[in-house]
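Cross-check.
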Amino acid sequence: MKRSLLLAVLFSSLALAAPLRAEMCESTGEYEYTYGDAESVMSAKQRCENLAIRAAIEQCALFVSSTTNIENYELKDDLVNTLAAALVKQKRVLEQRVEGRTIYYRVSIKLDDEQMARAIEAEQARRGLSSGAAGAAAAQPVQQAPVQPVQININQTVQQTNTQTQATPPPTQDQGRRLDQLPVQEHAPRSYTVEHTNSLCLVLGQKSLKKEDWEPLEKQGLFGLRYAGAVGSLPLELTLDAFFSGKEDIVVFEWDGWLYDVPVTAATWELGAGVRYVLPGMGVLKPFGGAGVAYVGGSSEADATDNGGDKVIWTGGTMGMVVEAGAQVELGHFILGGAWRQSTAKPTLKPDDDSYNELKAACGGTSLLVNIGFAW
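Predicted model, tokenized:
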């Protein structure tokens, strides 16, 4: 008797649970969104995720078959909003990226086929349109990948469906094309072109100084660092740089009819700031030209102690002007480029020994540079 009662309770539970099992539509959608200066990163990420969910809904087989004969974009948009707000059972973020001001999301969702058909019929009825297309689509089985049946609360779902939810506004023209015009499977292949707002580069090259002031040390190896930051949405960048050059050689001096070989070390430095214009519309190639100011200095050290003389160091610096032109290639976050740079400054170099005279030497010069760096 107890066994019969237990079986009766078990079959009753299965009978009650059976109507709650429903076919689920599993779909994937993606969206790439570029936000403006007035929008925060957090709100832009949320909006991009919502748009990816909407794209996934529009790829669902039941939605496509149910709305084939509907040409009213506003109605389709309201249907997507209703489904996104009430009927998305499971959501999973498969991929997300933030590159400069561009955000990318790819999501996977699950929708209840039966409830989706009811929501579509309800929205069509509310607008006084025929619901035959949705009903016919719901009556026909939709081929779905096998998924685990999910137990749901139908009463709660229907109540959510009948509640008017606030719609997510469709994307504007400058934020992306309409979703019905850009299905996920028709997305263009992603290129290496990425808009960045900051970059840091290691700079190497050669600096040529005025021969009359620095011979035989007028050709010097150069190295330095450069930071560049975008100015809003303008094709301009602010730059901060620190460059150093130097060379060591033996210089022959004549003193009282005698010739002396004296080791001499010469060096210059430039600490500058400027602005440069980046030519837009060239893809991964970024030609640029700019100008700025720099504190330009130099030093010269002569060591004649091996010849019975002194060791003297001359140093000095002054403000100068800088102009430059060049181009760089940006492949993802990687930067490779080259530039021509001209700096102008002629400071007074003062000796550390007052018994020697001051020197007036041009510490600015012409530099040929290559740079390699990282952008973010």
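The domain at 198-375 is CATH 2.40.160.20 (Porin). Confidence is low (pLDDT under 50) at residues 1-21, 131-168, 173-194. Passed to J.P. for a second look.
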